[in-house]
Design a protein that fits this description.
InterPro entries: 26S_Proteasome_ATPase, AAA+_ATPase, ATPase_AAA_core, P-loop_NTPase
Structural class: alpha/beta
Number of strands: 6
Bound molecules: adenosine-5'-triphosphate, magnesium ion
CATH architecture of the largest domain: 3-Layer(aba) Sandwich
CATH topology of the largest domain: Rossmann fold
Strand order of the largest sheet: 1-3-4-5-2-6
Strand content: 5-15%
Family: Belongs to the AAA ATPase family.
Order of helices and strands: HHHHEHHEHEHHEHHEHEHHHHHHHH
Helix content: 55-70%
Distance between the termini: 104 Å
Radius of gyration: 30 Å
Number of helices: 20
Largest sheet: 6 strands, mixed
Keywords: ATP-binding, Nucleotide-binding
CATH superfamily of the largest domain: P-loop containing nucleotide triphosphate hydrolases
Shape: elongated
Domain AAA+ ATPase: 135-267
Protein name: SpoVK/Ycf46/Vps4 family AAA+-type ATPase
Length: 391
């Protein structure tokens, strides 16, 4: 048959990435040739189809073998880290088990379950591959500042028992864009060589460049290098990207991540849990805890941590101080951490604070709860409120 060698080549190329439709069409061609009695060509197509099937069956074990969990080298504290050739700034920082957080970040129950699912999948990566269930190997974590994203990324790495290779943006981003591309290449080459989780923290700094109105061709090349590097990493190891500016990320970057996880600001319940946990060994009454969580409305986990550290310092320096005046000081010195409404309610005096607490629907403060907080008798609160009403 004329030009059958080209048809053979076409079939082989198509079967390099076989889909049901491709296999179906090749089988149709084979049946048509069979009807015409072209036995030699039919045998050839059978051979091509069979070897493609054999390759498919081999694929899982191939991936497993090449996968970083079993194939990469082991990172140690002595491993030489890659540097920017011009400035000698390190491109990465490595965190080993001892350097990673001992406690999980605190989130809502639903988020905890989702995180467990990622960890389980990554812990059982090789078993999943054996079952041909290709697990996710990359995860994008995004959300507002201070919500625990970096903490979470490091916690996930700790749970799967791999060190973290953290990309250092100040090292990567050279003033020479050509060097930036080379640094990105070297970063991924390093991460692909070792068993590790590659953490691209705040990596919108690179990824967003492509949308910059000032963009130049060279900047596009930097982003393209990043895209290619993310592709090259896919079957080589776990990658976690973290960003506060998800809207600035190029859609092409989004697509590279198998899992995309939004970390929200803490809800009331999460805040209560977080404050209690962070405050240990300090103990607060239930109303005090509610008051602290009320003060932190719309704040982040990092804000809660700052507040608790402030309370601990006060406890050491001035152990007899009352919570409300201490909170007023905190509010004045941390204006950006507390919502304007809460700030106003706290600094405008006791009446305003009492009214704001009683008007709150979430915590259900009662006069009798608020009284000890302000070091007042419940009757004094009633009197104060009725006097305010009369005025
Ligand atoms: N949900 C949380 N549970 C426990 N700790 C938290 C939580 N959120 C924030 N923190 C603590 O607050 C600090 C800041 O958190 P982290 O750096 O992980 O936030 P981030 O989301 O990465 O912030 P940024 O966007 O500014 O980089 C850390 O010490 C972290 O442990
Ligand atoms: Mg962070």
């Amino acid at each position: 048959m004329q030009h059958f060698n080209i048809i053979q080549a076409l079939c082989r190329s198509a079967l390099a990435n076989p889909t049901d439709a491709i296999v179906h069409q090749i089988k149709r061609l084979k049946e048509a040739l069979e009807k015409d009695g072209q036995t030699k060509e039919v045998n050839s197509l059978n051979g091509i189809l069979n070897s493609s099937q054999a390759n498919l069956e081999m694929a899982p074990s191939k991936i497993q073998k090449s996968f970083v969990l079993s194939a990469g080298e082991t990172l140690t504290r002595k491993t030489v880290l890659p540097v920017d050739k011009e400035t000698s700034t390190a491109l990465v920082e490595v965190f080993f088990d001892d350097d990673l957080p001992a406690e999980p970040p605190i989130f809502s129950h639903e988020i905890q379950i989702a995180i467990e699912a990622i960890i389980n999948e990554w812990v059982k990566f090789e078993q999943l591959i054996q079952l041909q269930a290709i697990p996710a190997s990359s995860c994008l974590i995004y959300g507002s500042p201070g919500t625990g994203k970096t903490h979470l990324a490091k916690w996930i790495a700790k749970q799967i028992g791999l060190p973290v290779v953290l990309a250092r943006l100040e090292g990567l981003m050279s003033s020479f864009l050509g060097t930036t591309s080379r640094n990105i290449g070297n970063l991924f080459a390093f991460a692909n060589r070792y068993n590790c989780v590659l953490l691209l923290d705040e990596f919108d700094a690179i990824a967003k460049l492509r949308n910059d109105p000032q963009e130049v061709g060279e900047v596009k090349r930097v982003v393209n290098t990043l895209l290619q590097s993310l592709d090259s990493r896919h079957e080589r190891g776990f990658t976690i990207g973290v960003t506060n500016h998800e809207t600035l990320l190029d859609p092409a970057i989004w697509r590279r991540f198998d899992i995309q996880m939004q970390v929200p600001k803490p809800s009331t319940d999460v805040l209560l849990h977080l404050i209690t946990k962070l405050a240990a060994p300090l103990n607060f009454s239930e109303t005090e805890l509610k008051f602290l969580a009320w003060s932190l409305e719309d704040s982040s986990g990092a804000d809660a941590k700052m507040l608790v550290q402030w309370l601990k310092r006060v406890q050491v320096i001035n152990p007899d101080s009352e919570l409300v005046p201490v909170m007023r000081q905190f509010v004045l010195l941390n204006a950006g951490r507390i919502s304007g409404e809460r700030r106003d309610a706290m600094v405008r005096g006791d009446e305003t604070l009492i009214q704001a607490l009683l008007a709150d629907k979430t915590f259900g403060f009662k006069q009798k709860d608020i009284a000890p907080l302000l070091n007042m008798a419940p009757s004094s609160i009633s009197k104060l409120l009725s006097r305010t009403k009369e005025n």
